[in-house]
Structure to design on (87 residues):
């Protein structure tokens, strides 16, 4: 599924996870970097979207209602949730 992330949002996500611990995380990072290089929306699987959501939870406070710090992060989370509910 194509996730309609802006270039700025992709950069923001990449800042959450600079290095991959698992091969699946590395694949997500590669897809995000490629999308950034080509100025396009990343095409991610459902599992890969969930990986990004996990990164967000780590960065934004946790699974049980962490604080969303700014509107950009709120937009990212909204796009991820929307993709999962539609895909």
């Amino acid at each position: 599924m194509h996730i309609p992330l802006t270039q700025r949002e992709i950069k923001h996500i990449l800042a959450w996870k600079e290095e991959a611990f698992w091969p699946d995380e590395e694949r997500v990072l590669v897809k995000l970097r490629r999308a950034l290089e080509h100025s396009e929306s990343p095409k991610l699987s459902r599992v890969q979207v969930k990986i990004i959501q996990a990164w967000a939870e780590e960065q934004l406070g946790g699974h049980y209602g962490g604080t969303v710090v700014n509107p950009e992060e709120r937009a990212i989370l909204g796009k991820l949730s929307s993709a999962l509910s539609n895909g």
